[in-house]
């Protein structure tokens, strides 16, 4: 798996600036890193530390840390980041992330890695891993809910997992769907903007990636065998799908503790229609200790809350690639 192998002996700190990330890592490496770390989480070789997220009372910013340790790859570190709503006016991205990796043997800092593009790649990889392991094999129609920054990354990664023949999409502002139409066009697929009832009826796989405080996809919308990847709900109070739908589906997640507190499962847990024991880590399916989907008619749901170990996994892969390709900046530290 992606890890510290090629640069473990390096004593100085490695810097991989944000501008280099796109040239170093793509969807395939991100997919492999995330699939491996989900497997390590389910076998208890890797674990996430509690998330810190604070409104800092300055610049309307939300700031926090996601961190963890993977004993298999020896990835140890944190992603520091948050949301600065005033950044766009300054020509900067509102979401700002940086990953810091440490040497698991000594605690010395090993690497500082730009985390903005990596966040999009690892989030898209998570839903793609869920599609690989949980979607109906015969899936032909991919439904997208949301057309914000993350959505095109999600669509590109998802299209690689099944022989999709069509993409359909819904967004609060339908004009924004042109981004997704362009991605579908690049993949040679037709795209149609639809209402939610048609999306729920026609899509074999649904990815939801919106920032909403109330359910958009309703239980009644989804008919037939479907895999739903809920990727937008990563904070207490957010919601993308109706709790009844979460309770009806066979429910998987990256990490159960996050799913019940900040993920899509929080609402079904709160109303008692779902209990913690109903939720399975996706890694268990990857490891073969859970059978995953049992029929083409089943509704499966992946609650992708976004864990620190995903960030460490892709950042470790980037550092390996940066060292190999000679673009890693080494500094004495
Ligand atoms: P964005 O701001 O670029 O786009 C927001 C999207 O949400 C748009 O499609 C917008 O139309 C939609 N939206 C906002 N409010 C809505 C409402 N009330 N009803 C319906 N639609 C609404 O954001 P983004 O960067 O694309 O991120 C989307 C979501 O994904 C956010 O909630 C973000 O926090 C979350 N996210 C999750 C992970 C993870 O690991 N799970 C990682 C990154 C981002």
The hetero molecules present are: nicotinamide-adenine-dinucleotide
For the secondary structure, the number of strands is 18
CATH level-1 class of the largest domain: Alpha Beta
Number of structural units classed as domains: 2
- Percent helix range: 25-40%
Q: What oligomeric state best describes the polypeptide chains here?
A: single chain
Rg result: 19 Å
- From the spread of the alpha carbons, the general shape counts as globular
Q: What can be said about the biggest beta sheet?
A: 8 strands, mixed
Name the CATH homologous superfamily of the largest domain.
NAD(P)-binding Rossmann-like Domain
Q: CATH architecture of the largest domain, please?
A: 3-Layer(aba) Sandwich
* End-to-end C-alpha gap: 27 Å
Average residue-wise pLDDT = 95
Structural class: alpha/beta
Helix tally? Answer: 11
């Amino acid at each position: 798996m992606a890890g510290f192998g090629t640069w473990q002996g390096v004593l100085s700190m490695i810097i991989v600036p944000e501008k280099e990330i796109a040239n170093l890592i793509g969807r395939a490496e991100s997919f492999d890193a995330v699939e491996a770390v989900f497997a390590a989480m389910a076998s208890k070789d890797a674990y996430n530390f509690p998330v810190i997220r604070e409104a800092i009372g300055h610049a309307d910013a939300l700031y926090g840390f996601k961190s963890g340790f993977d004993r298999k790859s020896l990835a140890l570190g944190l992603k520091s980041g948050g949301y600065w709503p005033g950044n766009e006016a300054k020509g900067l991205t509102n979401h700002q992330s940086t990953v810091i990796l440490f040497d698991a043997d000594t605690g010395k800092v090993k690497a500082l890695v730009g985390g903005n593009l990596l966040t999009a790649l690892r989030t898209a990889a998570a839903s793609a891993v869920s599609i690989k392991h949980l979607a109906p094999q015969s899936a032909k129609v991919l439904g997208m809910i949301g057309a914000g920054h993350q959505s095109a990354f999600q669509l590109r990664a998802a299209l690689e997992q099944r022989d999709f023949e069509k993409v359909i999409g819904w967004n609060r502002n339908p004009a924004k769907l042109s981004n997704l139409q362009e991605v579908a066009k690049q993949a040679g697929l037709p795209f149609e903007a639809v209402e939610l009832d048609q999306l729920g009826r026609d899509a074999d796989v649904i990815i939801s990636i919106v920032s909403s405080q109330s359910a958009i996809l309703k239980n009644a919308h989804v008919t037939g065998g479907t895999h739903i990847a809920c990727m937008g709900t990563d904070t207490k109070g957010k919601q993308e799908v109706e709790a009844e739908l979460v309770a009806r589906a066979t429910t998987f997640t990256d990490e159960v503790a996050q799913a019940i507190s900040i993920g899509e499962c929080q609402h079904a847990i709160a109303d008692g229609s779902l209990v913690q024991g109903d939720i399975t880590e996706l890694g268990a399916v990857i490891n073969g200790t859970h059978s995953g989907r049992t029929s083409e008619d089943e509704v499966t749901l992946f609650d992708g809350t976004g864990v620190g170990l995903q960030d460490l996994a892709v950042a470790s892969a980037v550092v390996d690639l940066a060292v190999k390709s000679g673009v890693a900046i080494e500094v004495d530290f």
